[in-house]
Design goal:
The protein is an alpha/beta fold. The protein contains 20 helices and 30 strands. Helix 7 links the parallel strand 6 (146-149) and strand 7 (170-173). The structure holds 5'-O-[(S)-ethoxy(hydroxy)phosphoryl]adenosine.
């Protein structure tokens, strides 16, 4: 037996030394057989990006009607791509592979929390999708209607999305970690006609009564006519006659044939709500042809994908954009075989990920830095028990990856032989924007390196908008790309205001700060707006604040993102109470519970600081900058604009008392 402690120390020492290494060129063996290994691809794409993307659209998709034009930029930033083309997303993901004789290929190796295994082939997925598409039609759902999807990580989630796409309904998936109250809000904003959910969802050996919770919070939504319930756990659930139906029953009764309807390229494919700087989530709208082009191209070439031999695992949740693009549309459009894992990384044991990699021969793993940091904490000895030699590429997404975690991933999981792809993108961009290419780019731990071919990113000076040659500034995208959001659902003005007011309509404002190094490589630092990234989950401080103040004893709340070694950022809430209410542990628990109910458990504040008052400017604006300073234990920045400078002294005393309480 090896001595774990000295192994750990040796690893630590090795990683420390590796921090000195400047860059990691692609391994020769990898480069030789990579799909793309010639850097000329960047120049080729830059010379005529629209023509280049159009060539990708034709290379990788089978259009019912090929587009005659690439980009229509007559009304920026309301761009249209491939506008006269016609294509159906579900046919791209399913029918064309089955027609090519690949019906028996596994689309998903599904692994359930309790050890279940279910392989779903492309032919089976097509069959289920056709049935459910017909069932939705029979329930009155048609082209352009919005369908909510609130499901855990089970194959039916992909079926539901694809069935919508097949008939031109617009899906609106809500991450299973959001509360039923969030579901209600998103159904209301989007005027959803139907909702697909589940009787119960399993998490680490427990079952949450999802349908019951949905019923308790849904209230009266006049537009919502139908709720389809997947019986996943068999847990008792209330059903309302005339509104609720079981998925299995409507599918069994449905006609098995549902020919895919060719959609206009700009037909909406889905809405996905994400957090912005106000409490109201933004309904990011993606359309069909451009989105499919973006995800199919990036999935194929960023990950050097060989659909015949690779086993792909994107360990995100389908309820976020990463899951939409790289669990459902990208991999299926490319005819890949994926792993879909229902559960948490530590159930039934802390080695479950590596057991899955070993069992299915996973060759490409795409995960979030927060997961990697968790595995680091659990120790290298755990993955060390499994055979991980099937891995050939490793991806990272969702938040900045610190160089130490990058190196650990590279060494411990990748055995030093797998290129690491730190991919930067957003719900809005639809697909990966800044990333190394594994056969071309020399990577640097912590940098997402350079824009994907055809993408133009820049770092600009905050005020003037002038490009920053070297150093820090705001990240912007300089020209339209096929998979970009088309608008915020039914909020065109807010779309313009959020992304195209600061630097005009020709430049997309990302909302992240970034640094450009001497080699021109990009290092994304984090958000510049009031968005917090907790374990790669995007949250708005305003959203959390409004949940906290919903508690009757709370007068005011200010929420900030505080750096956290495990989750990247953590929610820290400064809370003032009404009247003579005294802080207590019960109250703290109640405030957390309020956030869990209104948003979801993952949004609960890690730290609550009771405050007498909050630092405000003379015009009454809360100065979050000072709260961030104080929470991180930094010297306070400029306090001269405060209405009452005494507030900060009180807060400092409060923080000091908190520290003593911990000792
Ligand atoms: C952050 C997730 C650094 C960033 C795909 C962005 C990253 C936000 C990276 C989008 C990365 C994502 N390095 N930061 N590789 N990837 N981010 O919409 O702040 O959930 O703006 O999309 O995550 O989060 P979203």
């Amino acid at each position: 037996m090896s001595d774990t402690r000295s192994d750990d120390a040796a690893l630590e020492h090795r990683l420390e030394q590796m921090l000195e290494i400047d860059s990691f060129p692609p391994p020769e063996a990898f480069r030789e057989r990579a799909l793309w290994s010639d850097p000329a691809i960047y120049e080729e794409a830059a010379a005529d990006p629209v023509a280049w993307w159009t060539a990708r659209a034709k290379e990788l998709l089978d259009w019912d009607v090929e587009p005659s034009e690439g980009l229509d930029d007559s009304d920026p930033p309301f761009y249209r791509w491939f506008a006269d083309g016609r294509v159906n997303a579900s046919a791209q993901c399913l029918d064309r592979h089955v027609a090519a004789g690949l019906g028996d290929r596994v689309a998903y190796h599904w692994r359930g929390e309790e050890g279940e295994r279910r392989d779903v082939t492309y032919a089976e997925l097509l069959d289920s999708t056709q049935r459910f598409a017909n069932a939705l039609r029979a329930l009155g759902v048609g082209k352009g209607d919005v369908v909510g999807i609130y499901l855990p990580m089970i194959p039916e989630v992909a079926v539901a999305m694809l069935a919508c796409a097949r008939i031109g309904a617009i899906h609106n998936v809500v991450f299973g970690g959001f509360s039923a109250e969030s579901v209600r809000e998103r159904m209301e904003f989007s005027q959803a006609r139907a909702l697909v959910t589940v009787d119960g969802a399993r998490r680490k050996g427990r079952t949450a009564p999802v349908k019951r919770q949905v019923d308790e919070h849904l209230g009266d939504l006049p537009a919502l006519e139908t709720i389809v319930v997947v019986r996943a756990t068999g847990v008792e659930c209330p059903m309302t006659a005339g509104r609720d139906v079981f998925y299995e029953e409507v599918c069994a009764a449905a006609d098995p044939d549902c020919p895919a309807e060719p959609m206009e390229a700009e037909h909406p494919l889905f809405i996905l709500y994400t957090s912005g700087s106000t409490a109201k989530p933004k309904g990011i709208l993606h359309t069909t042809g451009g989105y499919l082009t973006g995800v199919t191209t990036t999935h194929r070439y960023v990950f050097d994908l060989r659909p015949e031999t690779d086993v792909w695992w994107c360990a995100a949740d389908v309820g976020w954009i990463t899951g939409h693009s790289y669990i459902v549309y990208g991999p299926l459009s490319n005819g890949a075989t994926s792993v879909m894992w229902e559960g948490a990384p530590d159930h039934p044991h802390q080695g479950i990920w590596w057991e899955i990699v070993q069992d299915h021969g996973v060759s490409i793993l795409y995960a979030a830095p927060t997961a990697i940091r968790t595995f680091i904490r659990w120790g290298a000895e755990i993955p060390g028990r499994y055979d991980l030699t099937s891995l050939r590429l490793l991806g990272s997404v969702g938040e900045p990856i610190n160089p130490k975690a990058w190196l650990w991933y590279h060494e411990v999981i990748g055995g030093g032989r797998c290129p690491i792809l730190d991919t930067w993108w957003q719900t809005e961009t639809g697909a990966i924007m800044i990333t190394p290419l594994p056969g071309i780019t020399a990577t640097k731990p912590g940098s997402a390196t350079t824009p994907f071919p055809g993408i133009a990113a820049d770092v600009v000076e905050e005020r003037s908008g002038e490009p920053v040659a070297e150093g820090q500034g705001l990240l912007v995208l300089e020209r339209p790309w096929p998979s970009m959001l088309r608008t915020l659902y039914k909020e065109d003005e807010r779309f313009l205001e959020t992304y195209f007011s600061r630097f005009g309509r020709g430049r997309y404002l990302v909302g992240d700060a970034a640094r450009r190094d001497a080699d021109g490589h990009l290092w994304v630092i984090g958000r510049i707006d009031d968005v917090v990234n907790v374990s790669g989950h995007r949250l708005s401080t305003a959203e959390v604040e409004s949940a906290i103040v919903a508690h009757e004893k709370v007068a005011e709340a200010a929420v900030i993102g505080q750096s956290d070694p495990d989750t990247g950022q953590a929610i820290c809430a400064f809370v003032t109470l009404t009247g003579d209410t005294e802080p207590s542990e019960e109250l703290e628990a109640a405030v957390r519970e309020e956030v869990a109910t209104r948003i979801g458990k993952f949004a609960r504040p890690k730290r609550i600081v009771w405050a007498e008052d909050l630092p405000k400017t003379r015009s009454g604006k809360i100065m979050r900058r000072l709260l961030r300073d104080i929470a991180e234990g930094r010297a306070l920045g400029d306090v001269t604009t405060l209405r009452d400078p005494g507030v900060m002294a009180e807060l400092e005393a409060q923080i000091a008392a908190e520290g003593e309480g911990e000792d």
